[in-house]
Amino acid sequence: MDLASLFQAHLGERQRSAEEALARTGFDALVISSGEVHTYFADDQDAPFHPTPHFAHWCPMAGPHHLLVVRPGKTPRLIRYAPEDFWYEQLPLGSPFWAGGFEIEEAGTVEDAWARLGSVPRAAYIGNESDRAAAAGLEPNPALLTAHLDWTRSYKTDYELQCIEEATVLGARGHLAAKAAFLAGASELEIHQAYVQTVGCLDHELPYPSIVALNEKGATLHYEGKRGLKKGFTMLIDAGAQVRGYASDITRTITAPHCDSRFAALVAGMEKVQRELCEAVHPGMPYGDLHHLGHLKIAGLLQEHGILKAAPDEAVEKGLSRPFFPHGLGHHLGIQVHDVAGRQLGPDGTPAPPPPQHPFLRTTRMIEAGQVFTVEPGLYFIPMLLRPFRENEHRDRFDWALVDELTPCGGIRIEDNLFVTGASSRNLTRKHLPN
Ligand SMILES: [Mn+2]
Question: What is the distance in A from the centroid of ligand 1 to the CA of 330?
Fold first, then answer.
C-alpha cells in the first residue's frame, strides 16, 4: 500500500478511537494543538520544538500553534499556523500525502488560529496552550481522556509501523557508519558525526541524544558527553532516527581487536541472551516476566564467565544481578522514544507501577499484538552500584579481581525494536542491522 493509503487507514483508526474515548469520558469534541515553543528563561532563544505527541499521532506536520479539531462523524479540521515571517524560514504547505485527510485552513497569527476555532461546545483540549484553551471555553488536558488516548497509542497502525521501519533503516545505516568509524580509531565526537552525517539529520532531529560511549563511559547509562579520545577498545552506541515523528531506538556494543578477550566473550554472550529474549516475546506474556527472564539469563552469563559464583535462580532471588543490570529490559516505542502508557493497567489510566525491586521498569503491560517495544538487556560494571556488595553478606559471591579488570570496559547493551504480531513478534531491527 502507498503511504497516502496507509495514512488514510491510520486516520480512520484515530477517528474511531477518539470517538470512543470522547464517548467514554463525556466530551463532544477534541481540540489538539501542536503547541507552543519553549523559550529558555531570561533568554531569547527557544528549545528545539517538539510537537504535542497527540497532535503528531494525527498529523505529521511540523511547527507550533497548529490546531486540530476532532468531532464525531466529521472530517478533522486542521487550522494551520502559517505566519508571514522574515526571521525564520516558512515553508509552504504544498501537497503532502496526508493533506487529503483534513479540512485545512490557514491562520497568519496565533490569535487568528484561535479565533478561527470559534465555539466548540463540550470540548476537551490537549496541548501546552492551556490558557488560550481555557479562554476558548475548552477543558485543558483532562486526565481521563488523556489516559484513553495514551492507551490507544500502544497499538500501532500499519502506517506507524511503516514510519518506525523507515526510521530503523536510517538508524541502521548510521550504526554501520559509526561502527566503521570506531574500528578505524575515531573519537566519540567523530563517531557521532559519522552517525548523523549518514542519517542525514541535525542533532536536534534525532529522536533522543545519541549515546556514543567508549571504554568505561559505557557504564554511564545516559552518557552524552562525546569527549572520549580516539582508539577505544569498546564502544556502546545507543542511537536512533526519526521519520515523520516516529522513532527507532537501537543499541550495539562493539569491541575492537585490542579489547580484553574476556569482555569480548561477554559481549558475544549478551548477543545470544538478547536474541533469546527477543524470541521469547509472545502475546499474553506480561512484560515484567520478560524482564525477569532477562535477569535470569544475565545472571547465567555472569556465572558462566566466573563473575558471579551463584546459580541464576539464587542470584536473581538475592538481587545479585541487579547491580549489573539496573535498568528495565525495555519500553514502548513510537512518537516518544519512551512511549506512553507503559505503566497503565487499562485505558482509564489506573496506574500499574513497577515492582519495588525493579523501579526503573518502564512497562508493566501485558504483551499484546500491535505493540512496538524495545528489548535491551544490559550488563555494566558500575562502581557505584557494585560498591555496597563488596562489603555486604554476598561479597564472596563475586570475583572482585575480575570485576576490577573488566571495569575499564564499561558495559554492554544490545537493543532491538520488536513489533508484536498475533502469535509472536517481528524484530524490526535485525533485518536492517543483523549484528
Ligand atoms: Mn531504549
Answer: 6
